[in-house]
């Protein structure tokens, strides 16, 4: 039995040796092993160590900052000015936060105004509001205002003085806010501003909303500053008299809007809001938007014809709220564009 066992073991060993020999012969010569030069190896090791040290130092720095904030409080003003302005700009949509920030300190007050005023719709109606805001934008009123020039930071301004005697105060505010982009005011205030200025400086204003008063177009057309102002308008909404003379120079006007309850027959010298085929009246006019009141749920805008659209506004939403919504990108013109095909949406 022992001979048989040794014979079987010998056969298995010889077979394994034969297979291993054949595999060696079939592989051919093996390539020499890759050897990294010592200098390169040391450089790679040092690089990995440096990267690890940088990560550890970054983590330790982060821990020190968090610990310092927990012990001493967060010092907002140690951040770069650009980051501070970006953070403060988010407060423009939250009046309560804005009012709290302007009470922190003089430096935070100035930075908050610079960051938020260009984004906020400013609405002024009551005597108290007009007086308070005039102290801010009229630079001869307070030391802070004299160094800030807050008037040029206002981009959206609503002026509707409740008393006739407040017109002069509204005019002073309008004159100070010379960088306004969208203006809503009554015709009396606008006419006073145009009549008293030899040069109307509101060169950036493109959107005008006239509030519940009959526009005095003759006053605007009789002065160089008035003509300049009319010729630069691209968006016009009339809340009072819904008629515009055919001779009114509005070459850049592309969008016009009326509340539909104000429409009535006009004379031959008046442009009807739906008569858009006269290039002499408004050569650049693309569409007219009529606003109608509806329930709180609202309705989808309707296209009456290629250039006449109806936008529905909830009954409980005031005209001021409709105007303020434009600061958040929800203007009447935006809602009107939802009813148009993409190819015909106004620029």
From TrEMBL:
Signal peptide: 1-21
Assigned keywords, A-Z: Signal
Name this protein carries in UniProt: F-box domain-containing protein
Lineage: Eukaryota, Fungi, Dikarya, Basidiomycota, Agaricomycotina
